Amino acid sequence: MRIIVMASGSGSNFAAIYQAIQTRQIEAEFCTLIVDKPDAYAIKRAQGLGASYHIVDYKEYPTKIEYETMILNIFNQYQPDLICLAGYMKIVGATILNQYEGKIINIHPSLLPSYPGKTALDDALSAGEQEIGITTHYVDSGVDTGKIIKQTKFMIGDMSREQIEERLHKLEHQLYIETIKELI
Ligand code: GRF
Asked: Which tens digit of pLDDT belongs to each residue from 40-63?
């Protein structure tokens, strides 16, 4: 199983996946990390870990089609079996889906189908939810609408926002690794 990871932000899920591959917790081959923002902290993590990465800066491409064609070229160069979106903040367009739908998965911080979109945790908290969920799912053309693979959840009790985020990230890393193992 050949794996590409895509990220836009901090990259903690990327690092967890990468390290799980390095330690053979996941029996797979890490191809590369693709980052769409040149200032993303994920790049620093990749450098620190000695992991291969590519920066494809969205702003340098006049259209989404041209941007995604560049990404597609990288995919085709590595021939991945699985593409893991890990805080990749763009909707995947037809250019990529036409060739790779069914091989792209994502992790989302809610119990989908509840609270899709970028503000999932805030939305769940302001709705007064006592349980926070995490979902891994296949990526389709919608926003967090693809087929669900795995879910987990935890009670927030009297946790602070910081504690909730810390727990959430820890569980995300575990769930992503379990999901990849299951798919293998
Ligand atoms: C995670 O909360 C994930 O669920 C969401 O984006 C965040 C990425 O975190 N899709 P990180 O960049 O992996 O630390």
From this structure: 999 999 999 999 999 999 999 999
User: Is residue 169 flagged as an active site residue?
Assistant: no
Q: Which pTM was predicted?
A: 0.96
End-to-end CA distance of the chain: 7
Give me the sign of the Cα torsion angle 36, 42, 48, 53: negative
The model's pLDDT over 69-100, given as tens digits with 9 standing for 90+, comes to: 999 999 999 999 999 999 999 999 999 999 99
**135 C-beta closer than 6 A to ligand 1:** no
Q: Where are the beta strands (DSSP E) in 112-169?
A: 131-138, 148-155
Q: Is the CB of 11 under 6 A from ligand 1?
A: yes
Angle at Cα 33 formed by Cα 70 and Cα 136, nearest 5°?
A: 105
